[in-house]
Amino acid sequence: MTTTKSTTKRTTKTTSAARYLPEDRRLSSLKSAAEHCRGCTLFQDATQTVFGHGPPGAPIMLVGEQPGDQEDRAGLPFVGPAGRLLARALDDADIDPGMTYQTNAVKHFKFTRKGGKRRIHQKPSRTEVVACRPWLIAEIGAVGPQIILCLGATAAQALMGPSFRVSTERGHVVALPSEDDLEFDPEPSVVATVHPSAVLRDRSERRDEAYQLFVDDLRSARAALVSG
């Protein structure tokens, strides 16, 4: 008896938001188009797309990881506990929120349920971050910031690449990598720091110090703006 082995060809489906971007790259058009994005599967469970918020021409762009539970419900970035801490830190760093455009690297809330009801944040995968990256790149082009302040590793690695380490580069003013989709005129500089949620989670005796370091990083971004 002869047994014939059959082989199944496996294909990997590439996920990307790129095909959902409109020809009109103004912020209003980008926001409307993002509401219908199906570039990855996160839209299936999220309440809505949480796009960026702020004026075109804002000199500072704040980029976080992804919407949290409250952001997912409100449809705005940085309105939860981490957002409130960020607002306080911006004030302590003498940065007017009106000078900022605030967004996330990933536009949908990724979560798991605890006890059937409570939604617990889950870190987005690299695949999901890369899939959503076209929206972030388009936002940078539409806003034209002088400084991009990356809040946390997910945000920083979305722009700077997976080898970038916030732990060694935080507070430093760095240039964007040389990549075709990262060519802007003028080209913004980048400052990376921790996400404000990391400061919130710090229950140690060094929590005040962690907050002050966060504020210092924001001041570095402001100083780079002034010197530029």
Question: How would you describe this structure in keywords?
Answer:
two-stranded antiparallel ribbon, five-stranded mixed β-sheet, 14% strand, 36% helix, disordered N terminus, globular, 228 residues, 8 helices, alpha/beta
What does this structure look like?
- The protein is an alpha/beta fold.
- Helices cover 36% and strands 14% of the residues.
- The chain is built from eight helices and seven strands; from the N terminus they run H-E-H-H-E-E-E-H-E-H-H-E-E-H-H.
- A five-stranded mixed sheet has the order 2-1-5-7-6, with helices on both faces. A two-stranded antiparallel ribbon has the order 3-4.
- It is globular.
How can the largest sheet be summarized? 5 strands, mixed
Query: What is the average per-residue confidence, as pLDDT, rounded to a whole number?
Result: 92
Spans where pLDDT lies below 50 across 5 or more residues: 1-13
Class based on secondary structure composition and strand pairing: alpha/beta
**Count of alpha/pi helices:** 8
Straight-line distance between termini: 78 Å
Q: What series of H and E elements makes up the topology?
A: HEHHEEEHEHHEEHH
Q: Numbering strands along the chain, what is their spatial order in the largest sheet? A: 2-1-5-7-6
List the helices and strands and how they pair.
Elements: H1 27-34, E1 60-64, H2 69-74, H3 81-92, E2 100-104, E3 111-114, E4 118-121, H4 126-143, E5 147-151, H5 153-160, H6 166-169, E6 173-175, E7 189-193, H7 196-201, H8 207-227
Parallel strand pairs: 1-2, 1-5, 5-7
Antiparallel strand pairs: 3-4, 6-7
